[in-house]
């Protein structure tokens, strides 16, 4: 049986966030993609961001697409412009935070018969093989891991893959979620828009960091990553700190064509789910 940390990478986030504004990490490589005119190459070289004006889906974009058929289409607006719509406030105390406040980990809130963790593994891994039926993922490959741009092998029980909450639950708790009805917290914890299969070690170095304190070592993924955080905070009405907003704007200014992802699940969970 895998231990709780192998199964639920989020539990690592009870530790304080470790600042990593430089985005240094294990095995990081920068991949520069050219999707248009030569000017895009200059942007990438300067900012380390991938310009994505198409809202395309795939392993380099948090699509919010679950195995049950959630939408991963772009909202059509620029992520940079959406930052201005976020409320700016100070970080509230972490007092009272507990993972159980967000319900049982990986609840089947979309009622497709599979837990959320397996839904995301099926969505994000390649060469998936199942341990039981077509639900429990036994193995696969993260090809590549968006945070490091390295390939990572997933084997159930010996996993080097975590499911990351793009907006960490502890961070959400301190920026509005502690005031929510439990149903909304359960929805956030299981929303495919806020979930991504990633390298376990890199995810745990993130802890509960926000954009101001942590960015993926893979610089080419930073624009997509920050756009995902903006999308989740906008969808759920979570606020940002001054430093966080400035960091979001700084990253997204280098890729003004980056689209805001949309989709995922409703912002309230079915009534049968409960949280402490």
From TrEMBL:
Keywords: Endonuclease, Hydrolase, Nuclease. One of its GO terms (molecular function) is endonuclease activity. Residues 116-248 form the GmrSD restriction endonucleases C-terminal domain. Signal peptide: none annotated. The keyword Hydrolase applies. It comes from the Bacteria. Residues 8-23 have a biased composition (Basic and acidic residues). Residues 1-30, 51-76, 255-276 are annotated as: Disordered. This is HNH endonuclease. It comes from Streptomyces ureilyticus.
């Amino acid at each position: 049986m895998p231990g709780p940390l192998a199964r639920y990478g989020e539990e690592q986030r009870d530790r304080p966030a470790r600042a990593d504004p430089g985005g240094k990490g294990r095995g990081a490589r920068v991949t520069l993609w050219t999707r248009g005119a030569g000017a895009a190459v200059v942007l990438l070289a300067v900012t380390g961001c991938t310009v994505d004006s198409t809202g395309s889906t795939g392993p380099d974009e948090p699509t919010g697409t679950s195995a049950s058929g959630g939408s991963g289409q772009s909202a059509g607006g620029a992520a940079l412009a959406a930052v201005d719509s976020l409320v700016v406030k100070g970080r509230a105390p972490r007092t009272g935070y507990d993972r159980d406040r967000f319900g049982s980990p990986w609840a089947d809130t979309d009622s497709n018969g599979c837990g959320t963790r397996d839904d995301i593994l099926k969505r994000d891994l390649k060469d998936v093989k199942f341990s039981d039926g077509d639900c429990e993922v036994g193995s696969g490959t993260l090809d590549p891991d968006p945070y490091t741009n390295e390939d990572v092998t997933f084997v159930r029980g010996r996993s080097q893959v975590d499911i990351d909450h793009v907006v960490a639950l502890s961070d959400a708790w301190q920026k509005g979620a502690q005031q929510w009805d439990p149903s909304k917290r359960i929805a956030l914890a299981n929303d495919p828009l806020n979930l991504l299969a990633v390298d376990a070690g890199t995810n745990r170095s993130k802890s509960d960091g926000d954009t101001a304190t942590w960015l993926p070592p893979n610089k080419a993924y930073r624009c997509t990553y920050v756009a995902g955080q903006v999308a989740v905070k906008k969808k759920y009405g979570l606020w940002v700190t001054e430093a966080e907003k400035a960091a979001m704007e700084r990253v997204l200014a280098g890729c003004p064509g980056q689209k805001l992802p949309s989709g995922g699940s409703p912002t309230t969970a079915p009534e049968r789910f409960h949280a402490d």
